[in-house]
Amino acid sequence: MGEKGRRNHTEVTDFILVGFEVSPELHLLLFLIFLLVYVMILLGNVGMMAIIMTDSRLNTPMYFFLGNLSFVDLFYSSVIAPKAMTNFWSESKSISFAGCVAQVFLFALFIVTEGFLLAAMAYDRFIAICNPLLYSVQMSARLCTQLVAGSYFCGCISSVLQTSMTFTLSFCASRAIDHFYCDARPLQRLSCSDLFIHRMVSFTLATIIILPTIIVIIVSYMYIVSTVLKIRSTEGRKKAFSTCSSHLGVVSVLYGAVFFMYLTPDRFPKLSKVASLCYSLVTPMLNPLIYSLRNKDVKEALKTLLEKKNSLL
Length: 313
Known about the structure:
Layout: H1 2-11, E1 14-17, H2 27-54, H3 61-87, E2 94-96, H4 97-130, H5 135-138, H6 141-166, E3 176-177, H7 184-188, H8 196-229, H9 234-263, H10 269-293, H11 296-312
Parallel strand pairs: 1-3
Antiparallel strand pairs: 1-2
């Protein structure tokens, strides 16, 4: 079996992305939905980055993190959406072996980076609300840069490990991946290797990645809630909570979808696709909307930018 597995593994030159098993009549509708969502992702995240870079009022640690969050959202959705849209019109629905490796690597890189960025943003809100007088000192430009660089570094290390483990498996079953992009779990179903050690390592890696970020977020918000409840004025409490509501919304959507996907048994691949759709496309679309609609500074910066453009016309 081992010799056969190794031989078949080297012979794999491409995979087939099954995608969404719907009637051909619905392909156009799904393509248009994916296209609309992807256009909104591009406009929202590029717009958010442009606003943050052009408005000096947003030159703060919170918006530095938010700009990087928009960058990450833009790129990991771009790893998924174009190929998924192409496959609606492709008869073969194939993706090369190298293309599949690239999708697994890049998606893992950006999704893990996003988790660490959200933890850094929670810490930023904790310092801003619990230690406002020391905020500019503690959240220095150097620390912010280190937190962002550390997020990308952790994402890169995790991605290298996850990708190398996945593609050292022997693929001697069908080449058809029951998903709309290359992901580790659907690829495991195609393998004839013993997956016990692989799954244990994946579980350990996921725990090392997810647990610290969740702990930082939960502990930060425990201190934030405790501090806000001590504020006597209703207006003060409302203002303090409003600075955190957008971040909490983004965290809830992302982690809710991730947990739903990875807690869904393998025998329900359709549910996994729905959850994957939420955090690979819906979350990057919603993040700019959540931050722009609920953030006074961003709305004012957008208004200023539009007024400048109108004055030039």
